[in-house]
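Recall that a protein's primary structure is simply its ordered list of amino acids. Everything else, from secondary elements to tertiary packing, is in principle encoded there. The following example makes that idea concrete.
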Amino acid sequence: MADKDYIQRIKPGIGKRYLLFIAAIVWTFAGGMLLYKGINFFFKNTFHFLVRLALSGTGGALFYIFLFSKISRKHTLRILNLKTEMPCAFSFFNLKSYLMMAIMISLGVFLRKSGVVPINYLAILYVTMGIPLFLSAFRFYYTGFNFPKPKN
């Protein structure tokens, strides 16, 4: 029992509202970084620039509508329904999502460093994935700003 008490004392617990903002910042950072890198890659080779940008925008919007909007809704609801009022600051993701994030980051770095995928196509992939990540962050911001105020 003493181990559990110790863990509770050292756990970086924060309110759910702030956990939503941490999630929003992480998703904004990830999406923004992919968009920044992808757009920079676009400018390294402007061949079919508008076509590649249109493909990325369309793909990103579709990914958001059909996949990421559901994922961000699931994570938002999971945070809101956490049993504790002061969850760990790292619980904005569950274990499965942390593993998925690690795999995606590793794959992105591998593709960029290895040269397996030409930079023109990698730019499309980065922007296509950056758009839904960036858009999904707004659900966390919205929910955090509209989080119920405590009743006194």
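Residues 49-80 form the longest helix (32 residues). Residues 15-143 form one domain.
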